[in-house]
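Quick review question:
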């Protein structure tokens, strides 16, 4: 889909009534709030129900405790309210800003600034979830900018460069995670694997490796477990939409559907194998071993190349390093940097969703469609019809 540039938007949409571009389902702003917030609440409830259900199922029997159930309900309610307010207030804030500017709508006040302002609702999420959401959105912004620069020819993001990025990111990330394991802090990360703590050598130690028992079963167990997780994700994506016709769904399976499982499985298998080899070679464990282990494990990226994964490995490492900087008071802790980052990221991504869709990450398109209960497509269609009619 073709992007809408600043010049194109300002020349065609500056004087257009807000009901055309912000709430096409009703002419008046106040009257449009009822369907806007209703759809936002319904869409957010459905979207976060699936996410929280999966997260709670991963807790196993622990979720059956009364305290955990109460916490799960509270967290789900807070997430739903967060999504509904972000989705609903976008139009509210945009209409308000338009009136303050003399009934003029600009390229930046259409989506970008309203969604930067309502990003403050991230504070509704509990701190344990908030950090992961910020990580996700920062990763998506970097992915969006990378796609944009690649398309415009500033640099070429080839598969080889993405692999190198993932190898370096994995090495740094695993190293910093093993360092952090020796401290009392615990930084929430959006990552699929937590490496074992460094084993301190004692007289009672029967092994120098960071695990109990023989190495081969440990390595194989890791491979099979994460292969199963990766393959399970693929099955949900492939078979989920076709559950009504299971035989037809199974007929769609191909060898390429093993890619995610092979990526996850070999990633963990190679990492554990290298760690064990280095421990046995040197007779002791060290956090430094995570550097070559993570780097070599990154070669598994070739099974399922993903710019998002490559970026996430580097941003995860940067987040862990920033935690060290906070502890050393190099970064002041009285500035809410994570909230500011989220507000900027949300504004940029939702702006890209409507005006630069060719570079916008697919997850953002699915997110806006789910949380708005499909109303984003109505807004986009109205916007493009207006630009097309004037152009």
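Suggested answer, residue by residue:
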């Amino acid at each position: 889909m073709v992007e809408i540039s600043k010049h194109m938007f300002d020349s065609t949409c500056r004087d257009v009534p807000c009901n055309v571009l912000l709430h096409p389902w009703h002419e008046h702003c106040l009257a449009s709030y009822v369907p806007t917030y209703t759809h936002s609440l319904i869409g957010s409830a459905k979207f976060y129900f699936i996410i929280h259900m999966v997260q709670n199922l991963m807790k196993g029997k622990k979720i059956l405790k009364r305290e955990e159930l109460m916490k799960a309900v509270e967290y789900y309610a807070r997430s739903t309210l967060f999504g509904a307010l972000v989705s609903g207030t976008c139009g509210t804030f945009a209409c308000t800003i338009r009136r303050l500017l003399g009934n003029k709508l600009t390229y930046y006040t259409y989506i970008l600034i309203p969604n930067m302002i309502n990003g403050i609702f991230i504070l509704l999420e509990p701190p344990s979830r908030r950090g992961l959401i910020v990580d996700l959105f920062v990763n998506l912004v970097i992915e969006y900018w990378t796609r944009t620069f690649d398309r415009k020819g500033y640099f070429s993001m080839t598969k080889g460069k993405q692999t190198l990025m993932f190898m370096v990111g994995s090495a740094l990330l695993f190293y910093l995670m093993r360092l952090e394991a020796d401290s009392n802090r615990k930084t929430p990360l959006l990552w699929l694997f937590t490496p074992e703590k460094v084993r301190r050598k004692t007289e009672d130690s029967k092994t120098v490796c960071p695990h109990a028992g023989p190495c081969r079963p440990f390595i194989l167990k890791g491979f099979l477990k994460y292969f199963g997780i990766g393959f399970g994700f693929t099955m949900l994506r492939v078979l989920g939409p076709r559950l009504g016709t299971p035989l037809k769904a199974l007929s769609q399976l191909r060898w390429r559907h093993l890619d995610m499982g092979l990526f996850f499985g070999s990633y963990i298998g190679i990492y554990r194998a290298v760690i064990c080899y280095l421990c046995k070679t040197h007779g002791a464990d060290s956090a430094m071993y995570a550097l070559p282990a993570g780097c070599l494990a990154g070669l598994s990226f070739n099974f399922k190349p993903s710019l998002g994964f490559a970026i996430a490995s580097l941003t995860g490492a940067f987040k862990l390093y920033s935690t060290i900087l906070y502890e050393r008071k190099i970064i002041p802790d009285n500035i809410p940097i994570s909230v500011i980052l989220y507000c900027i990221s949300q504004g940029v991504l939702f702006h890209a969703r409507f005006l630069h869709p060719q570079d916008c990450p697919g997850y953002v398109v699915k997110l806006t469609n789910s949380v708005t209960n499909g109303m984003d497509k109505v807004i986009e269609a109205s916007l493009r019809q207006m630009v097309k009619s004037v152009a």
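Why it works: The chain has a mean pLDDT of 88. The two ends are 16 Å apart (CA to CA).
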